[in-house]
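Checklist before submission:
- one chain only
- standard amino acids only
- sequence pasted in full

Submission:
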Amino acid sequence: MDKRYHLRYRRFGCVCQAPNRHTASASFGGEEALRPANAVLPHCIFIKEKERFRKIDFGTILFVEALGSYCRVHLEGGHDMTLSFTLAEITPKLQANFFRRVHRSYIVNMDRIDAFIGNLLCIGPHRIPVSKQHRSEVMRQFNILGSSK
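Returned file contents:
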């Protein structure tokens, strides 16, 4: 077995024997091994503010709004943060079980939705539109009792 393979798998903390080149599974040395594990702090994200990184719990994020090549993160308590990232760049950093894309310009924390009226989601005083493209997926997330007449 090649010495490079042994060192590579030791560096990633694998306790099993390095696989040989022909029987390597997709998880060894592939994209999963190179991706940083977020097991330590899976409930938060760090956002850079000037020289420091601020820890933001996912529960405090109400929604994220696209502003061209920027986006605004709306936090509870009326605090907002404007970031120089697009919505597409931020989406993979947010946990999928908390956040859902509801519009081309909005990602919403599903736990923070207070009500919905037609194609609008209500989060506190904010009204967020739901596009036709995302409506059926968003509505499946709600546990609805009653019928509309």
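Reviewer check: Residues 3-34 form one domain.
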